[in-house]
């Protein structure tokens, strides 16, 4: 039985507190007197959908509270006991809707999801509008009525909770199974790669040699370009190369050494430099020919 309804800052309502006696209560008044506002407020206290537009202008939030005597509502009592929210024979449902649109729900002072408030509210009270009969054709409504009259709403709520828990565990099991399959596949790949490496029978510094060869092959184009530039500077450039310049310098100093023997060591150094340049040219050509350029 509904015992009390308190509303604050809802639509045009500043604050209202209504006590209900046992038996039948009737709200009367002219059109626009606010009867439907009270019914809507009661629906919001029971978990019906609401929005920030319902908050009175200038207020931070709208508050709704409905107090019930559940001594004659066994299905509601069962629900409260199952959720460990029971409090003697009384039950206080409270709803807060902020001006920012956020909504909070409470049962006997304990915060609960809005879906739980709505589920409990359906056990407390039926609100019938002028078009309520049309909803009787909906499967969900028919199922709710059947469960309600069979006293099964608490069991249904528990079943839904257990199903959600099972589905969560099933998802975790699926993820673990997939992870195990990925692990097995990864182990197979690593085992194959290990077998391939072992079959190579690499000895000593062979890995370093293969790595160096790989680096050489990866940079073969760059190496060939560098060799060609060096050869051009040392020998191949007809206009000016190190070999011809050294030869010219050697001939000039040899002529001078005939006049002054003190230049004889310079002649030997230039002659040796020419020989080293020729050897460097030969070595560069050999190296260039050895490069494998795709």
What can you tell me about this protein's structure?
The protein has 294 residues and is α+β, with helices and mostly antiparallel strands. It has 3 domains: 2-126, Rossmann fold, CATH 3.40.50.300; 138-201; 212-290. The chain has helices at residues 35-45, 74-82, 114-124, 139-149, 153-200, 206-218, 220-236, 242-259, 264-290; strands spanning 2-10, 13-19, 61-69, 90-98, 103-107, 110-112. Strand 5 and strand 6 (110-112) form a beta hairpin. The radius of gyration is 47 Å and the shape is elongated. The two termini are 91 Å apart.
Which helices and strands, and how do they pair?
Elements: E1 2-10, E2 13-19, H1 35-45, E3 61-69, H2 74-82, E4 90-98, E5 103-107, E6 110-112, H3 114-124, H4 139-149, H5 153-200, H6 206-218, H7 220-236, H8 242-259, H9 264-290
Antiparallel strand pairs: 1-2, 1-3, 3-4, 4-5, 5-6
DSSP strand content: 5-15%
Overall form: elongated
The total beta strand count reads 6
Strand order of the largest sheet: 2-1-3-4-5-6
- Low-confidence parts: none
CATH superfamily of the largest domain: P-loop containing nucleotide triphosphate hydrolases
Q: How much is the average pLDDT? A: 84
Overall structural domain count: 3
The sequence of SSEs as H and E is: EEHEHEEEHHHHHHH
Radius of gyration over all CA atoms, rounded: 47 Å
Short description:
With 294 residues, the protein is an alpha+beta fold. The chain folds into three domains: 2-126, P-loop containing nucleotide triphosphate hydrolases (Rossmann fold); 138-201; 212-290.
Features:
single chain; 294 residues; alpha+beta; Rossmann fold; 3 domains; 14% strand
């Amino acid at each position: 039985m509904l015992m009390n309804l308190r509303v604050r800052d809802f639509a045009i309502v500043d604050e209202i507190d209504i006590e209900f006696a046992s038996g039948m209560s009737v709200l009367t008044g002219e059109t626009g007197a606010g009867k439907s506002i009270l019914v809507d407020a009661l629906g919001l206290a029971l978990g019906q959908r609401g929005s920030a537009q319902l908050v009175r202008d200038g207020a931070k939030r709208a508050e709704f509270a409905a107090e019930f005597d559940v001594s004659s509502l066994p299905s509601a009592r069962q629900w409260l006991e199952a959720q460990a929210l029971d409090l003697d024979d009384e039950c206080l449902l409270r709803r807060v809707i902020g001006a920012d649109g956020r909504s909070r729900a409470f049962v006997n002072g304990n915060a609960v999801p809005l879906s739980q408030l709505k589920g409990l509210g359906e056990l407390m009270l039926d609100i019938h509008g002028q078009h309520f009969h049309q909803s009787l054709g909906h499967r969900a409504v028919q199922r709710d009525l059947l469960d309600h009259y069979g006293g099964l709403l608490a069991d249904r709520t528990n079943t839904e909770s257990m199903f959600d828990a099972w589905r969560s565990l099933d998802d975790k099991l699926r993820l673990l199974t997939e992870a195990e399959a990925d692990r097995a596949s990864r182990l197979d790949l690593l085992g194959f790669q290990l077998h391939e490496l072992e079959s190579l029978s690499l000895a000593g510094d062979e890995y370093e040699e293969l790595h160096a060869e790989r680096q050489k092959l990866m940079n073969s184009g760059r190496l060939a370009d560098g060799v060609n530039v060096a050869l051009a500077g040392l020998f191949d450039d007809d206009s000016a190369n190190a070999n011809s310049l050294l030869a010219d310098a050697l001939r000039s100093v040899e002529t001078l050494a005939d006049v002054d023997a003190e230049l004889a060591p310079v002649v030997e150094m230039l002659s040796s430099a020419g020989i080293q340049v020729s050897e460097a040219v030969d070595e560069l050509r050999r190296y260039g020919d050895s490069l494998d350029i795709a």
